[in-house]
Design goal:
Distance between the termini: 37 Å
Helix content: 25-40%
Number of helices: 6
Number of domains: 1
Strand order of the largest sheet: 3-4-5-6
Strand content: 15-25%
């Protein structure tokens, strides 16, 4: 059962994105398509993310996705479940953690790092299996997975040591990423 507040938040984010008029949005994902994505990648969408994708599947953000200097992915195409690009985008948060662990980084809250690099990676994999799975929203922006959850901050995850909050929730994130400001202050509002 999905949470009504999560569904409302996802629908608000979808309306906000549609109203911006800069994103090509296809028909929303069906319950069967959402279930297929969850099965394929081993997570369950959060309620707001599920409602957002059911309202419409964004695929191209003009001025963002097709920019020649684009250094990251665009919108995940949840209908192309066999895509290597989608697999890379889904796996990115864990892959970047493991890459940094392999290079010698060790999270402070994990206690002492095992001396053997292979053991360190094994322990990291084990610990990562216990934390919320991150699901791509757009580019390197992620929401935690989990049915019955919603309203989480959208995180921009470039590296384990380069994670920032990109929006307090999905609806706020849409405005921040695509420059839909809530302020009407001339000039200054263009830089919010």
């Amino acid at each position: 059962m999905t949470d009504a507040a999560g569904t409302a938040l996802g629908m608000a984010a979808a309306r906000r994105l549609r109203n911006l008029g800069i994103v090509d949005i296809r028909p929303g994902l069906t319950a069967a398509e959402l279930a297929a994505a969850e099965e394929r990648f081993g997570f369950v969408f959060a309620d707001d993310h599920r409602a957002f994708l059911a309202a419409g599947l964004p695929l191209l953000a003009r001025g963002h996705c097709e920019h020649p200097d684009r250094a990251s992915w665009g919108w995940p195409d949840w209908r192309d479940l066999g895509s290597e690009e989608l697999r890379s985008q889904v796996d990115w948060p864990v892959d970047t953690v493991l890459e940094e662990i392999g290079a010698g980084h060790w999270p402070h809250g994990w206690g002492s790092r095992p001396a053997d690099p292979a053991e360190a990676l094994d322990e990291a994999r084990s610990r990562l299996a216990e934390v919320p799975r991150m699901v791509p929203v757009y580019a390197h922006r992620y929401l935690p997975a989990g049915r019955g959850t919603s309203g989480h901050a959208v995180l921009s995850i470039h590296r384990l040591t380069d994670i920032i909050v990109y929006g307090a929730n999905l609806a706020e994130y849409i405005g921040r990423e695509f420059h839909d400001t809530w302020t009407a202050v001339p000039f200054w509002g263009d830089y919010v």
